[in-house]
Amino acid sequence: MNLVLFGPPGAGKGTQAKVLAERHGVPHISTGDIFRAALRQGTPLGLDAKRFMDAGQLVPDAVVCGMVRERLRERDAERGYVLDGFPRTIAQAVAFDEMLSADGSSIGKVISVEVADEELVRRLTGRRSCPVCGAAYHVESAPPKVAGACDACGSALVQREDDSEGVVRKRLEVYNAQTRPVAAYYQDRGVLQRIDGSGSIPDVLDRIEKALEDGGR
Ligand code: ADP
Ligand code: ADP
Ligand code: ZN
Fold it and tell me: Which residues surround ligand 3, an ion (CB under 5 A)?
């Protein structure tokens, strides 16, 4: 399965990608998670990305594309992937097409998860994240079993710095200006499917699985 999960910050991409990747036996590749892991390890990539992330801005295309190119060459991605958070600009989408065609491959399916702005703000400001495994929780909609601890690995949950309301609003602006046009790019090529991202996490998962079956790819 070669799937791109597309949508605004807070749409539930990471939540759904984790389940889909596990079910379909492919890696979940989240560019945001890769940057945060690099930052925890104190690598130059992580330190460089941090400035942009904290401001709610996008990391430069060349940095992101180089990183994704390397990640897709890893062995576990031979059988496919669920990409979450990439591509986020037209330039990234074009670079991604070039990466795929260089490998004799082409774009699989792009599923756009659509959620109203006010719900995005509610989801992001209430999000709590596991700094170790990347799992996301929500204080109201998806609380962990033990308050403050990750169900999957037990680590103490944190609120991401960029999930404060001010930065969230900025990220939504950046999404509208730079990322939303990517949906039209894929729509023109006939690979985009839009699904309703409102409602419960299992309901949204069902809609994604149905969209995957429909296209048959
Ligand atoms: P969310 O899950 O809320 O959508 P991410 O974890 O995907 O957020 O991304 C967090 C931040 O990492 C972004 O605001 C941006 O600074 C950076 N980032 C992640 N992916 C990309 C990308 N494809 N292009 C540019 N910046 C990115
Ligand atoms: P993204 O990766 O698109 O930024 P996440 O998967 O991290 O989004 O989800 C953002 C927040 O919304 C998290 O706190 C998550 O627990 C919560 N969430 C995800 N899906 C739903 C849903 N269907 N209903 C309510 N809350 C959700
Ligand atoms: Zn965890």
Answer: 130, 132-133, 135, 150, 152-153, 155
CB atoms within 10 A of CB 12: 25
Q: How far apart are CA 135 and CA 7, in angstroms?
A: 18
pLDDT band at 192 (very low <50, low <70, confident <90, very high): very high
Rounded to the nearest whole angstrom, what is the distance from the C-alpha of residue 35 to the centroid of ligand 2? 19
Q: Which residues are catalytically annotated?
A: 13, 88, 127, 160, 171
Nearest residue (CA) to ligand 1, atom 15? 58
pLDDT in tens, 40-86: 999 999 999 999 999 999 999 999 999 999 999 999 999 999 999 99
Rounded to two decimals, what is the model's pTM?
A: 0.96
Query: With pLDDT > 70 as the criterion, what percentage of the chain qualifies?
Result: 99
Give the distance from CA 67 to its chain's centroid. Answer: 15
Structural domains for the chain: 2-115+170-213 (3.40.50.300)
The residues, any chain, with a CB within 8 Å of residue 38's CB and separated by 6 or more, are 45, 46, 49
| 215 — pLDDT class (breaks 50, 70, 90) | low
Ligand 3 centre to CA of 142 (Å) is: 14
Gap from CA of 77 to ligand 1 centroid (Å): 20
